[in-house]
């Protein structure tokens, strides 16, 4: 992202007639983009619990999303997105603080409670630290 730009992301749940209504207003599908993210964490989910999200995006490489500067009022959260492997490694070596649940956790709780429950249960398993989650149903295809 270029210096000086701010990315604004707003989430909403479309109603059953949203697509039809958009078409009535003259909207058309310009293009569809699909990608796959694989998220990594420790067995204890220490990254997720500190609101850090380490992922490998298919075809794009590694990304770490972590909390940005605090103190900006309003209903939003600022994240830093690191894509350089040395920066990611350096950030992961700094102790992290507990934060409010991230949007992926809230999504799982609301819309995929079975996967959220399995994620919680995985903390009890005996996988090695830093192991990739073996349940492929936690890999998400995102279409935008």
Automatic annotation (TrEMBL):
InterPro entries: CYTH-like_dom_sf, CYTH_domain, THTPA. Residues 122-144 are annotated as: Disordered. GO terms for molecular function: magnesium ion binding; thiamine triphosphate phosphatase activity. It comes from Dipodomys ordii (Ord's kangaroo rat). One of its GO terms (biological process) is thiamine diphosphate metabolic process. PANTHER family: THIAMINE-TRIPHOSPHATASE. Coiled coil: none annotated. Pfam families: CYTH. Residues 6-91 form the CYTH domain. Residues 122-138 have a biased composition (Basic and acidic residues). This is Thiamine-triphosphatase isoform X2. The gene is Thtpa.
């Amino acid at each position: 992202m270029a210096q000086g730009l701010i990315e604004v992301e707003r989430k909403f749940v479309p109603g059953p007639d949203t697509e039809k209504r958009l078409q009535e207003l003259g909207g058309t599908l310009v293009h569809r983009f699909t990608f796959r993210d694989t998220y990594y964490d420790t067995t204890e989910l220490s990254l997720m619990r500190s609101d850090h999200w380490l992922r490998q995006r298919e075809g794009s490489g590694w990304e770490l999303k972590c909390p940005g500067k605090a103190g900006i009022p309003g209903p939003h959260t600022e994240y830093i997105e690191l894509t350089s492997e040395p920066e990611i490694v350096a950030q992961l070596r700094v102790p992290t603080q507990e934060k409010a649940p991230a949007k992926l956790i809230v999504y799982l709780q609301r819309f995929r409670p079975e996967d959220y429950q399995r994620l919680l249960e995985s903390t009890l398993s005996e996988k090695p630290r830093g192991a990739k989650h073996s349940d492929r149903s936690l890999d998400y295809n995102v279409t935008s």
